[in-house]
Amino acid sequence: MSQLLEQLRKVVGEGNVVTGQAVHADYTHDETLTAAPVVPLALVLPGSTDEVSEVLTLAAEQRVPVVARGSGTGLSGAAVPRADGILLAFDRMRRIREIDTENQIAVVEPGVTLEQLDAELAPLGLIYPVSPGEQSGSLGGNVATNAGGMRAVRYGVTRHHVLGLEVVLADGRVLRTGGKFVKCSSGYDLTQLLIGSEGTLAVTTEVTVKLQPRFTQSSTVLAPFADLAQVAEAVPHIVHSGVDPSILEYVDVLVMAGITQAAGLDLGIPDDVKARTLAYLVVVLEGMEADRVDEDVQRLGTLLDQLGAIDVYVLPSTSGAQLIAARERAFFVGKAAGCDDLIDAVLPRASIPDYLARLAVLATEHGALVTGCGHIGDGNVHVTVFQPDDERRHALMHAAFELAVSSGGAISGEHGIGTAKLPYFLEMQDPVAVDLMRAIKQVFDPSGILGPERVLGVPLVGDGHGGRPA
Ligand SMILES: Cc1cc2nc3c(=O)[nH]c(=O)nc-3n(C[C@H](O)[C@H](O)[C@H](O)COP(=O)(O)OP(=O)(O)OC[C@H]3O[C@@H](n4cnc5c(N)ncnc54)[C@H](O)[C@@H]3O)c2cc1C
């Protein structure tokens, strides 16, 4: 081990290999509720693609597992280190290499955070519209999880914005995919294959993304409803109406109470309306011209009224922005309240009313409390589960995922599989798909050093399974 540490120090520099108690606690976990913190054998902080390549070459030669880490905000356990491995973190690779305003493209290193990129783009009238709730997340982490977030209803998710990648393969070779062009029909699309692979196929060292013009006008509409099913049923109508919301979220009454209280936010909803409300729809409309946004707000208001909203509120711009910021903190509010796990299932939009109703029944059967909010415009629910008993909670999670899959959905809409959802994924995913994914993993990473046991349960070669998938 001391020889490996010596070799790593030669590659990245003395101060950029950290071990033992010197590893800050932040690096020992991500934000997953169910994964225990782990101190890595070595925290390694490369400063360039060449250094990443040399580190991976050493790791492959010595069969040392490598877990890549961006900002550690992930919710799947995939960035939690291994005690016998390298944690490769990108704190030193945070340069924005290029903002090409003519082609509306940015080229960034993997450690660049969303808030950092946004601060550079705002003065240029541009935006990178993918907006997972945690703005401290890195672009490398976003690519690895195919991050989504509130704006996916209008703009899509990370994979719809990444044009190219530079990655280092498990054997140290550097691969470039795609580029500064928006379409390509030249062989297999390796960019898309790598997006969402949660650090198990390659390590990203550069990301090329497309940008959008930044809207100057915005309006936030809040509609309370007397029941959750009505909220969910309203969503397809809003999507079909053509108002093209940038954000279309549902927030149930418990979550709304929690997030507004935590943010000290009074939205001015009368008490008698609050008393009749079980869930809210939050809709943000944006555009370049105030008149057109106002017109759409009017149309939306009429529609919400027809769809059974108790009332419709157009929030003042400050409250609107504060509500969106408060919604982004919903995870931490649930965590502070002691929630035990999180469901991030995705479904066909029209199946959500039935899913939420049946989930409530399942929760009662398993003695759990479930509360929720989510990106309902793209069929993605985020349900917080309160059931401290492991066995009962696992039974509920199993039933909830099974219900999502049998309703035509998937286990995770955006947080990923990692370790947290692995048993459910392996049981419920089409076995042919799992076989193919494992074959792809074998081609990219024959020794299994990248994120062992994550996503597909493939161990490090020689790690007790004889190199075969677990
Ligand atoms: C409050 C809160 C709200 C959130 N809201 C959303 C949301 O709305 N939508 C959403 O999609 N997610 C959301 N997330 C989850 C999280 O922010 C995203 O998963 C994000 O993409 C993780 O980025 P990160 O830099 O923190 O990655 P990490 O947590 O560090 O890592 C995540 C994965 O990426 C891999 N990885 C990191 N860097 C690299 C690299 N350079 N090369 C290869 N693999 C790499 C890791 O190995 C791991 O598999 C939320 C999290 C929190 C805490």
For the sheet with most strands, the description reads: 7 strands, antiparallel
Biggest sheet, spatial arrangement of strands: 15-12-14-13-17-18-16
* Low confidence ranges: 465-470
Helical proportion, percent range:
25-40%
Oligomer: single chain
Span of the ends, CA to CA: 26 Å
CATH topology description of the domain at 96-213: Uridine Diphospho-n-acetylenolpyruvylglucosamine Reductase, domain 3
Give a description of the structure.
With 470 residues, the protein is of the alpha+beta class. Among the domains are: 96-213, 2-Layer Sandwich (Uridine Diphospho-n-acetylenolpyruvylglucosamine Reductase, domain 3), CATH 3.30.465; 217-327, 2-Layer Sandwich (Alpha-Beta Plaits), CATH 3.30.70; 338-418, Alpha-Beta Plaits, CATH 3.30.70. The protein contains 16 helices and 18 strands. It has helices at 2-12, 49-62, 114-121, 139-145, 152-155, 190-194, 228-240, 253-263, 271-276, 290-306, 317-328, 330-336, 352-365, 390-406, 422-428, 431-444, and strands at residues 17-18, 42-44, 66-69, 86-89, 96-100, 105-108, 126-127, 162-168, 174-178, 203-210, 212-213, 217-225, 247-252, 279-287, 313-315, 341-343, 369-375, 380-386. The strands form 4 sheets. The chain has a 7-stranded antiparallel beta sheet, sandwiched between helices. A 5-stranded antiparallel beta sheet has the order 5-6-10-8-9. The protein has a 4-stranded mixed beta sheet with strand order 1-2-4-3. The longest helix is centred in the middle third of the chain and has 17 residues, at 290-306. It is globular and about 70 Å long. The protein starts with a helix and ends in a 26-residue tail after the last helix. Residues 30-31, 67-75, 78-79, 90, 110, 132-134, 137-138, 140-142, 144-145, 147-149, 198-199, 203-204, 331-332, 414-415, 451 line the site of flavin-adenine dinucleotide (FAD).
